[in-house]
Specification:
Blueprint (H helix, E strand, L loop, with lengths): L16 E10 L2 E2 L1 H10 L5 E2 L12 E2 L12 H20 L16 E5 L7 H10 L8 H8 L5 H6 L4 H10 L6 E3 L5 H14 L5 E8 L4 H9 L29 E9 H6 L6 E10 L12 H13 L9 E3 L6 H15 L7 E3 L2 H4 L6 H15 L1 E2 L15 E2 L5 E2 L4 E8 L3 E8 L5
Parallel strand pairs: 5-6, 5-7, 10-11, 10-15, 11-13
Antiparallel strand pairs: 1-2, 1-8, 1-9, 3-4, 7-8, 9-16, 12-14, 15-16
Helix pairs in contact: 2-6, 3-4, 7-13, 10-11
């Protein structure tokens, strides 16, 4: 007589979600080793933009990924390339399925959840369409539509469809089921992970590939964020421009990159002999619709998302050892995040170390939640807290234990990773080295 072992469940009766692989690309380099070394040494990936002419822009700096051949391509092409590199590293580490080889697609026995920036035609293509319309001045939208309908631009049509990047990744890595593309502003990368966790918990899949990617530093994006007065204008000192939680912070710095996690049902991962790197123990999500770009000034949605993530992990705020902050370096966001942390952690808020990776890699936008989840995992694995660089003028209104300028060794078993997006789209994750008791 044979018996079937009981599944390993969390305290809520759900399958445990393990992390078996992780991959990352940022302006600091390609892969976990290079990124972690640079991050813990406090090196900045922010620099002057050389990819395009910035002479008429207020902000001329960014944390761009310039070491790839696709760096001069359109946002969808670069975003796809960044996602491919992060996914290859994550799948390779997990040892699950097979990677693409010799022109053949890979095989990933699970679903794909991809956070990708909103896709729209960029200025070079618009100018080319305008020229194709036959008009030299006063080109109307109708003229552009007629040019596009000529059939000469089908490649552009495919490239700038929102789901194209996910479709290409699905074909490349051989994922099962329909790939999911999502965009929830700056919380997108964390939302992709959350969707993967939920799918595994519901038993819809044994594995999920969650990716956040963004290669959208281009002229129009810089102009738009500048019009919102959201970007730092410290062009003379790029490495010192991103100053989260500092009194003299003046805006965020755009960045590019990708982060990927292979998530698995814990029992399935153990059964195939996979090494368990950590667990996604909890997820919290809360939106408010307060404003198209601003978050509610009372911090209520962020507070709710943090609490939901901790509750979902079956923990209390006292169980959190470290916070990987959203920490954009904008006056409003940093103040709101400090307020939210104070509301959740109470008097202990000044004793919970917190740091912002954006001080070094910039704000990678749609990728940020996934990039920072990978950094949070590395913090758990290495027992080292990355610093917040450029923290030289503390803001007296922000009573946080900001890890200043130099990495700090610490025993860490549970990390809260915050992601707060435009329009009040907030997603928080709790990563743990061990499952909750």
């Amino acid at each position: 007589m044979t018996t079937t072992a009981s599944p390993t469940l969390d305290r809520f009766g759900r399958p445990l979600v393990a992390i078996t692989g992780a991959g990352i690309v940022t302006s600091l380099g390609r892969g976990k080793a290079d990124n972690w070394a640079a991050l813990t040494e406090g090196r900045s990936g922010v620099h002057g933009i050389t990819r395009f002419d910035t002479s008429n822009l207020r902000t001329t700096i960014a944390a761009t990924v310039d070491f790839l051949p696709d760096a001069l391509s359109s946002a969808p092409v670069l975003s796809e390339r960044l996602a491919v590199l992060a996914a290859e590293e994550a799948i390779g580490q997990a040892g699950i399925g097979s990677l693409p080889a010799n022109g053949a697609a890979g095989v990933f026995p699970g679903a794909l959840f991809l956070a990708v920036p909103p896709v729209e035609m960029e200025w070079p293509q618009r100018i080319a369409l305008a020229r194709a319309s036959g008009r030299t001045e006063a080109v109307s939208y109708a003229d552009l539509l007629r040019a596009a309908a000529s059939g000469a631009f089908t490649e552009w049509h495919d490239l700038f469809l929102f789901g194209t990047v996910a479709d290409r990744l699905a074909d490349r890595f051989g994922v099962s089921g329909s790939p999911i593309s999502l965009s929830t502003a700056c919380s997108s990368g964390a939302t992709a992970i959350q969707l993967g966790v939920e799918a595994i918990r519901r038993g819809e899949t044994q594995a999920a590939l969650a990716i956040g990617t963004d290669g959208s530093v281009h002229v129009e994006a810089l102009v738009r964020f500048s019009l919102l007065s959201a970007l730092s204008t410290n062009n003379a000192e790029p490495e010192r421009a991103s100053r989260p939680f500092s009194k003299n912070r003046d805006g965020f710095v755009m960045g590019e990159g990708a982060g990927a996690l292979v998530l698995e049902n814990y029992d399935a991962a153990v059964a195939r002999g996979a090494a368990i790197l950590g667990f996604v123990a909890g997820c919290g999500e809360h939106g408010d619709g307060f404003h198209r770009t601003r978050t509610s000034p009372d911090g209520a949605p962020a507070i709710a998302a943090i609490r939901q993530a901790i509750d979902d992990a079956g923990l209390t705020p006292d169980d959190i050892d470290y916070v990987n902050a959203h920490g954009t370096s904008t006056p409003e966001n940093d103040k709101m995040e400090a307020m939210a942390c104070a509301a959740v952690f109470g008097e202990r808020v000044s004793q919970v170390p917190i740091s912002s990776n954006k001080s070094m890699v910039g704000h990678t936008l749609s990728a940020a939640g996934a990039v920072e989840a990978v950094f949070s995992l590395l913090t758990l694995l290495n027992g080292r807290l990355p610093p917040t660089i450029n923290y030289e003028v503390p803001d007296p209104a922000i009573a946080l234990d900001v890890v200043p300028n130099t990495a700090r060794d610490a025993a860490v078993t549970r990390v809260l990773s915050n992601s707060f997006g435009f329009g009040g789209q907030n997603t928080c994750l709790v990563l743990a080295s061990e499952p909750s008791a």
